[in-house]
Amino acid sequence: MKTVSTTFSKARVLVIGDTIFDVYHEGTPLGISAETPTLVLRHKNSVVTLGGAGCLVRHMLELGGRAVFVTLLGKDAFSRHAEQYTHPNLVKIFVREEGRTSTVKERFWGGGYKLLTWDRLDDRPISPAIEKKILNAAEKNIRACERVAVSDYRHCMLTESLARALIELARAHKKPLLLDSQISQNKGNHLWYKGADLVCLNQREAASIDPTWSMRMSEQSLMRIQKIMDTRAVVVKLGAAGSVSMVENNFLKTPAIRVDARDTTGAGDAFFAAIALSKRIGARELAIANAWAGLSTTLVGTTPPSKNDLKAI
């Protein structure tokens, strides 16, 4: 019988993507301000963690994988949190650009509810010199890695020309490239990565590639996306409903686990981490990725759950 440990390889993955510093403030509600209709909280604690592609890396390390992490950092106090984060299975390659500040997303919690999200964004396009540094770092390390995982949070670390160069680099070295590119306030950029070996999407992202996307016709929709993206595999995450996938010519529908979800932040990174480490992509691996993502929602913040909890279920 296969175990969770045998599902994941100990592959070294080249991870390229935006780092976000997730700051969680937790407080105890005291009441409503006398001056304005504002909730007043007593500060309890504040925690800073690596989010974005950094969250993906942390999940991979918890699952037993190894990572070479290439990312862009600002020249500010927040970058110290990335510098201080270490792991025996992690190689960090930080690229910095003069005058750029880090991407920081602060979330304020009180009484078990998220009350406010406060984002600090520096979404200016990177310079050609910084783009070259990122590509050079990928070229230098790709031979020592078994696959490439691109986590594009759309904070301008990854340009269209860099995305296309990474696809060509992976092809030249015969390394599978797996993609997770986010849509928030921006339009989708998935066509930049046409030719990726696996594309991981949510339903909104699926619809940005194929406007006719429909869950009622999910198999046909996945086949259209597969053709548009010229990819071997398409996975669409459905949250509490699990996921649907087209892996080569095989349509797969896999369930989620029932959990008491508290915070869904980072669940997509958890799912992608499990996929990026899997020795193959099949029904079992997708079910385990759903389970790992589900477990991540039981915790407030982006701290990964324990691999032992995954083994237990």
Walk me through the structure.
This protein has 313 residues and is α/β, with parallel strands linked by helices. A nine-stranded mixed sheet has the order 5-4-1-8-9-10-11-12-13, sandwiched between helices. Strands 3-2-6-7 form a four-stranded mixed sheet. Helix 2 packs across helix 8. Strand 11 and strand 12 form a beta hairpin. The protein is built from ten helices and 13 strands.
| Sheet with the most strands: spatial strand order | 5-4-1-8-9-10-11-12-13
Helix content: 25-40%
Fraction in beta strands:
25-35%
User: What coarse outline follows from CA principal-axis ratios?
Assistant: globular
Span between termini: 15 Å
Mean pLDDT: 92
Number of helices: 10
- Let me know the number of strands: 13
> Roughly how many Å is the radius of gyration?
19 Å
Unreliable stretches, pLDDT < 50, 5 or more residues? none
The chain-level structural class is alpha/beta
Strand and helix order: HEEEHEHEEEHEHEEHHEEEHHH
Biggest beta sheet summary:
9 strands, mixed
Short description:
With 313 residues, this protein is α/β, with parallel strands linked by helices. The protein is 31% helix and 31% strand. It has 10 helices and 13 strands.
Compile the SSE list and pairings:
Elements: H1 4-7, E1 12-17, E2 19-32, E3 39-52, H2 53-62, E4 66-73, H3 79-84, E5 90-96, E6 103-110, E7 113-120, H4 128-141, E8 147-152, H5 160-172, E9 177-181, E10 198-202, H6 203-209, H7 218-229, E11 233-237, E12 243-247, E13 250-254, H8 267-277, H9 283-296, H10 307-312
Parallel strand pairs: 1-4, 1-8, 2-6, 4-5, 8-9, 9-10, 10-11
Antiparallel strand pairs: 2-3, 6-7, 11-12, 12-13
